[in-house]
Design brief:
The chain has about 850 residues and is mainly β.
């Protein structure tokens, strides 16, 4: 275990807890199941990644709990007084550990297991009692713990059972244990609590799971289960299953949550992992329930799956597939045993081993503006994908956060302006109380507000977030603000040392400390001269030799945390040059033109600008902005003055041209739309010379002239199409409008083509509408695969590895899925003509 500081730059604590055998891994031998070897002999491994299932959580005091496994029978460091200080038997026991927040004290460590093989997969602290609930899988028929009155006091007799054990927070007492199992394989992969202290479990089975009659949502015969139990494990409150009625589970479960409204969330991934092989026995995601608003309604049988089940399993709130459309030769997206989480607001943070093959043909779905939209491995190879999906079923929440000077902070100097934001932002009304006697502020237009504290003190700020239509109606959150008056006023002077050609400068720290808190020089300050020389001593008077002419940002930094404006700094621009030379950069633009003037002068301490407008507007800013509201030609003048240079003053001027702005516009036909008919876009822009079209269906942007544009949509829907019009000065105007399209799913393949010639017939492609997934293969007369694609956008040019193929007849097979979920299969011949 390792604990780092919030910035990840420092080690706060660490601990290694182990014996002499395998610890922290759920494995008995080293058989390679990926290559078809028999299931690992401990019987507790069903899914890829089960080897490394374990749990680390914190309690309310930041104590660290660890649930895992151990084969160190004789020397695992269990603690005196723990509930099970001896190894239970077999080759592997579960272990439960509690550490102090900085990993410097082992509070307790205990085995958990019987005479068979045991694994602790998950655990959670009961919010009402403080007891620790641990769950996992076992083959032991004699698990420790009181089983009187338990739901299932005896082992079921299958491969393994799930189990739940209740442990006191000090680790001294194993209060209760129950099996949960069938005649097959059973394991618990998730445990959580509602606000009333009722435990919920999630897992998978290969048997006939016990369900209750009081549920409204159930998929009979499915092999994924969710159940709510009484806190003493004596009975089910409800139990249900979801998925398809198949011999094996559909998915390998990954994350689990019970939200404030007692809705249940599950994430997992399904289907076979390795190409054309199924060593782990998952039946795949086809047929699992999805909701009408799913992100992805049709699966390739090897997708991630997210489901939200309403309180008391009353109904299905949401379910969706997620992932790329993998071909049969692909390695599907999966999880390599790591832990992903839901937050308390019902958003999933899911890590995925993704895009393992077919990088360019079937890219993994990413959203605009992300840091890395594509797989960076090149060629074939998995990459880490991370997704966040907010399902918005967890009811209203209040999560106030304070920001001072753009940074998350709760301490500052009077008068202190704080920007407050509710990061949950899922309410309709927000009531802010700032704790300083000012009136409450009620907002309905958004969760953000500014407030200025004018007196020194500590203020408890309260936010009530309200949505009368949510399951919990309202939620309250608090944050403390500390307002102080011990501000250090930062200031410094500088002057050239020597004649006008010198590059040596003297800097004097003239900062002012608050009464009664004098500075500790030089420790309280650091100088940085912006020339790559690094931080310098914070002495009051320092001299610095600059390496050459240039513009340097000199910075004085306050290091002392005892002042209310820590970490503050003051930066000034120093232009070092023997002679001052006024110069600047500015671009031409279109009205209304907000011109930015980039001052690139050599030397210069003061500057005077004249923007050449009829009013004769001037400025003394170093980098000014000025808005021209009329077209025309303007002469801008700059005077730079620096008494430390040899020539002291320099003047320059530049002409700025301000032009008319273009006006973008277009019309669409036919209106109303017709089935499978292309949409025609007529450009009606004025004053433009070139254009860029965006059709709103994730197709590539198409640049064109003013001629009409034809675009064929592939799906029924309403698309936001946009046109950007540019003039010869690269000024732009954008207009957008909703465009409707009607598509009747169709598919066809031409029976001949002429590669090597110009025109549409030089490449053969699948022709169709509404195709969301396909697998098209073309073979020569020897049965050799010469072409394969998963998208109708890619066609065959008649070559194999760059070599033209001979004239003749080629056979093809085609599997396609349409947007309405229907599927089709085609076989036929293609004649290659040259």
């Amino acid at each position: 275990m390792v604990k780092l500081n919030a910035a990840g730059t420092g080690l706060l604590g660490s601990a290694c807890i182990s014996g002499s055998d395998y610890d922290g891994v759920n494995v008995e031998d080293q058989l390679n199941k990926e290559n078809g070897a028999a299931e690992k002999a401990n019987g507790l491994i069903k899914n890829y990644g089960d080897d490394s299932r374990s749990e680390v959580i914190l309690d309310g005091s930041n104590n660290i709990y660890v649930a895992s496994t151990s084969r160190s029978k004789g020397n695992f460091p269990v603690t005196a007084g723990a509930f099970q200080t001896t190894f239970g038997g077999g080759k592997q026991d579960g272990v439960v550990i509690k550490l102090s927040p900085n990993c410097d004290n082992l509070i307790f460590a205990s085995f958990l297991g019987g005479s068979g093989e045991d694994a602790c997969f998950v655990m959670k602290v009961n919010p009402i009692t403080g007891d620790l609930y641990v769950a996992g899988a076992t083959t032991s028929t004699n698990m420790n713990g009181n089983k009187a009155g338990a739901i299932q006091p005896a082992f079921s007799g299958g491969i393994c059972d799930g189990y739940i054990s209740i442990i006191s927070s000090d680790g001294s007492t194993l209060k209760k244990t129950t099996y949960l199992g069938t005649s097959g394989f059973d394991a618990i992969y998730g445990i959580d609590f509602d606000k009333n202290g009722f435990p919920y479990v999630m897992g998978s089975t290969t048997g006939a799971w016990t369900t209750t009659s009081n549920v409204g949502f159930i998929n009979p015969g499915a092999k994924q289960f969710v159940a709510k139990l009484l806190p003493d494990l004596s009975a089910y409150v409800y139990s249900t299953t979801f998925g398809t009625a198949s011999p094996n589970p559909n998915i390998s479960p990954v994350a689990f949550l019970v939200d404030r409204c007692e809705n249940v969330y599950v994430s997992g991934w399904g289907g076979w992992l390795f190409a054309n092989a199924d060593p782990y026995g998952l039946s795949g995601t086809v047929g699992m329930p999805v909701s009408s608003n799913a992100i992805k309604k049709v699966t390739d049988n090897r997708d991630f799956y997210f489901i939200v089940i309403q309180k008391n399993a009353a109904s299905l709130l949401y379910a969706t597939f997620f992932g790329q459309n993998d071909g049969p030769s692909s390695v599907s997206e999966h999880v390599d045993g790591g832990t992903s989480r839901y937050d308390r607001n019902g958003a999933i943070y899911q890590a995925i081993c993704a895009n393992c093959s077919d990088h360019s043909i079937t890219p993994f779905p990413t959203t605009p503006g992300v840091w890395s939209p594509k797989n960076g491995t090149g060629g074939l190879g998995c990459n880490l994908a991370a997704i966040k999906i907010a399902f918005n079923f967890a009811g209203v929440a209040a999560d106030p956060r304070p920001y001072i000077d753009g940074k998350l902070d709760s301490t500052g100097c009077v008068p202190l302006e704080v920007f407050f934001s509710d990061t949950a932002h899922n309410a309709k009304t927000y009531i802010w109380r700032f704790g300083d006697g000012s009136p409450d502020v009620t907002l309905t237009g958004g969760p953000q507000v500014y407030h200025t504290f004018t007196n020194v003190g500590t203020y408890r700020v309260r936010l009530i977030a309200i949505d009368s239509n949510s399951c919990n109606v309202a939620d309250t959150g608090y944050v403390n603000i500390l307002v102080r008056k011990d501000r250090a006023i930062l200031d410094f002077d500088f002057a050239k040392v020597g004649d006008c050609t010198s590059l040596l400068y003297e800097f004097k720290n003239v900062s002012t400390s608050p009464p009664g808190k004098p500075f500790n020089i030089p420790d309280d300050f650091t100088w940085n001269f912006g020339d790559g020389s690094g931080p310098q001593s914070g002495a009051i008077d320092v001299t610095h030799q600059f390496p050459g002419n240039g513009t340097y940002l000199v910075r004085l930094v306050l290091n002392d945390t005892s002042y209310c404006n820590y970490p503050d700094s003051l930066t000034d621009t120093l232009r070092v040059s023997p002679n001052v030379k006024a110069q600047f950069e500015v671009a031409d633009g279109c009205v209304p033109y907000d011109a930015f003037f980039n001052n690139t002068s050599l030397g210069g301490r003061t500057f005077l600008w004249n923007f050449g407008d009829p009013a004769g507007t001037t400025s003394t800013a170093m980098y000014p902005n000025f808005t021209y509201i009329d077209t025309g030609t303007y002469t801008v003048q700059l005077t730079a003055i620096d008494s430390g240079t040899c020539n002291i003053r320099s003047d320059t001027s530049m002409i700025v041209h301000v032009h008319e702005k273009p006006m973008a516009g277009f019309t669409v036909s036919p209106v109303p739309p017709q089935y499978n008919v292309p949409t025609f876009f007529q450009n009606t822009s004025v004053g433009a010379t070139h254009y860029t079209w965006y059709f709103g269906d994730n197709d590539s942007a198409t640049s064109t002239t003013m001629d009409p544009v034809k675009h064929q949509y592939q799906y029924t829907g309403t698309f936001n199409a946009c046109l950007v019009a540019y003039n010869q000065y690269e000024c732009s105007d954008t207009t957008c409008q909703d465009v409707e399209a009607l598509i009747n799913p169709l598919l066809d393949v031409p029976n001949a083509f002429t590669p090597g010639r110009f025109g549409e017939n030089s490449i053969i492609t699948v022709k169709g509408f509404g195709i969301i997934a396909m697998n098209w293969k073309i073979y020569n007369r020897y049965g050799q695969l010469v072409f394969q694609t998963n998208t109708p956008l890619q066609g065959w040019d008649g070559t194999l590895n760059g070599t033209p193929q001979p004239i003749g007849v080629y056979a093809y097979t085609l599997e396609a899925t349409f947007e309405d979920g229907t599927k089709t299969t085609r076989k036929g011949d293609i004649t290659l003509i040259r």
